[in-house]
Amino acid sequence: MAAAETHTTGGIGKDVAIYVVLLVLAGIQFIIAYQDISASQMFARMLAVAVIEGGLALLFFMHLSENRGLMWFVFIFTVAVLLMLQYGWTDSFRLVNGVPWAK
Amino acid sequence: MSQADVSIHGQVSRTSATEIMTAPAFSVPAKKMAMWLFIIADTATFAGCLVAYGFIRNGTADWPRPFHSITNVALMTFILLTSSLTMLIGIRSAQKGDKGGAFRWTIITAVLGILFAVLHIREWLGMIGEGATLFHNPWGTPLFSSTFFSITGLHLLHVTGGVVALIAVGIRYQGGRYKADDLEITGLYWHFVDLVWMFVVPLIYLMNLSH
Description:
Number of strands of chain B: 2
Largest sheet of chain A: none
Distance between the termini of chain B: 77 Å
Radius of gyration of chain B: 23 Å
Mean pLDDT of chain A: 86
CATH class of chain B: Mainly Alpha
Largest sheet of chain B: 2 strands, antiparallel
Order of helices and strands of chain A: HHHH
Distance between the termini of chain A: 66 Å
Low-confidence stretches of chain A: none
Number of helices of chain A: 4
Shape of chain B: globular
Strand content of chain B: under 5%
Oligomer: heterodimer
Strand order of the largest sheet of chain B: 1-2
Order of helices and strands of chain B: EEHHHHHH
Number of domains of chain A: 2
CATH superfamily of chain B: Cytochrome c oxidase, subunit III, four-helix bundle
Mean pLDDT of chain B: 90
Structural class of chain A: mainly alpha
Number of helices of chain B: 6
Number of strands of chain A: 0
Strand content of chain A: under 5%
């Protein structure tokens, strides 16, 4: 019965390993912050690292890797919401750059 | 024969409609599923806030970069990540039946959460001392302060709620009213709070670091 499901795979060793990886990735984000790159490059790099961090936390700390059905359920809903939120970016650029195509 | 009667190998066994309807989705117990649905909804909330922040930041020409040091935010990140590990240790202790150990690690997690909140409030007070408020920003556009205090405040509210939940569930688990499953469900929420911080730090703090 599912009500008795427990998560004991991997043990504490795996948890510590993921924790160390997350610390390293967080450290990489701090290093990126001091790189002499453009804001858009910095944003892309930091977001990529954050997505990896979030994925590791979801899969191993929150045990989504042990339940494929739930993993896809969470993934599809989250991605759908994130995609729907992206509709306004063109307006955001128009605010700073004006509307060149209207001339 | 009712619709709920099921024929297996020629024999008819009665399966109630209630049983069919209450079969756990994805083999996840109802309480845990409820937490996952809350997490999905809360993800949408934070994603909405962060995308709105990105929209405003991108569309504002004189966006300030007021942060000079990463020490405080690095320490806060370390504390929150460590609290996720202590939570996992607590859950594993509970699953092994080690009640004392589970309670101890849960309370350590709550203490780390309190430490995180104290550092956060100290940082807020420092910024307020420099003249930044929800509607005023001494370094440029007031939108910076509005988004900073709103998003970090929403996260701090989640941390505070998590600390209260950890202490309440920990005490009730120790008293025998709650089971290891309940501790695990609370842990899911705590990991989510940690996960959100992984996105708040680069977008709100590190992108606004002065060089």
